[in-house]
Amino acid sequence: MDTVARIAREVAAPFADEVDRQARFPHESIEALRKARLMSALVPRDRGGAGCGMEELAAMCEILGQHCASSAMVFAMHHIQVASILRHAITQPYYAKYIAELAEKQYLIASATSEVGIGGEMRTSICAVERDAHGRFKLDKDCSTISYGAQADDILFQARRDAQAPSNDQIFVLVRKNEFTLTQKGAWDTLGMRGTCSPPFMLNSQGEVGQIFETPFADVTSETQVPFSHILWSNVWLGIATAAVSRARAFVRQQARAKPGTTPPTALRLAEVSSLLQTMRTNVHDVASECDALMRDEKNGTAALSSIAFALKMNNLKVSSSQLVVQIVHQTLLICGIMGYKNDSKVAVGRHLRDAHSAALMVGNDRIYATNASLLLVLKDD
Amino acid sequence: MSDQIRAILKEHGRLAVDVATLADDSDLYQAGMTSHASVNVMLALEGTFDLEFPDRMLRRDVFESISAIRNAIDELSKGR
Q1: Which CATH number describes the domain made up of A2-107?
Q2: A371 part of contact set with chain B, CB < 8 Å
Q3: What secondary structure letter does DSSP report for A223?
Q4: Per-residue pLDDT in tens (0 to 9) along chain B, 80 residues
Q5: Residue A206: in which H helix or E strand, if any?
Q6: ipTM over 0.95
Q7: CB contacts, 8 Å: A124 with chain B
Q8: Which CATH architecture has domain A217-375?
Q9: Which residue in B has a C-alpha nearest to residue A161's C-alpha?
């Protein structure tokens, strides 16, 4: 954890503005995380990793998020993929070998879960696996966005089981650097999260049938992808919010020092935003800790993770933290005033605000509310 | 009971195949039932059989096949 804090402060922070301005990949921080062998943080020790749990990883995302949200988001997204392999495919010989290699070589995994034409619904695919008679497959996917696709070593993504399968009968598969080609189809010039480098790509790939997860994508989604995404993302957002509040605090302290004896009016706003931050932090930590316990519970964990009640809780976390982060950073801008608005000031919060606005869009909140609305029709809260 | 379950699946399951072609143990999700459709199936089952699935039963595997649904309904009916 100290290592991550040091990397966040000494490597991610100094380049954060440049990464943002140029919309370039934060290769300095990812390289430092690789050198610290943190790309295998979740991998158990007996498989060559650091053996961290979800809570520790979440804390790392938060610390990185305080200094460079793009670095933190890349780190988070990579680990969502590692977690999926560890929970659902590690018993397959291909993946046991792959994970050992990942721990040794510190690969970076991207995910290509978006697809042109599905309207953002991850549980629907158009592309389908084409198997041949020699145990190999071919798979092409038209992706509306692949975060750090051009920088990743390997890519994990979902597709229909075969050309006859309905759109929601999906498999999950990893393809390696020498097995895929990406053709970039557009630019990544966005409001925020600019360093994640997530343009649209055409993905053409092939591989061995043994690379296809035996567990259906539906189970991977509900038990791992959704909880890990919502918790790690929320921690990145918590990092953004924490950093912005810390700038606002510095600003208010400075005002107070200028006129000892009078409480600056901004201090009241600071008190207000500090309470919001506490609400966000408590919620994020509480859900992460509950989820971590379920992930470790070999007896009842899987049933609990795939329950509707849990899905609702995960969705609520995502929706609430993605809204709170914007609200909090917005308030810090009001506190810092023009000094927060200026990009070259020590208390600038423009980047934080722009990064924060991505939160509501990463799986649109309206889509999540619609899902929850339908879940609440059957959930009794008993 | 299986016929009633099949009728509900036909109306609300939004399956990609004709429910008549499915065996009792066929995987309904592989037959195209989405999680959204499964919620409607749950609601229709609760209405038709006049019961309520407790939260512990609101899991993917409880509704994954016709026989799994029948077992769930049997379990709930027994308790009455």
Answers
A1: 1.10.540.10
A2: yes
A3: I
A4: 889 999 999 999 999 889 999 999 999 988 889 888 999 999 999 999 999 999 889 888 899 999 999 999 999 988 76
A5: strand A201-208
A6: no
A7: 34
A8: Up-down Bundle (1.20)
A9: B30
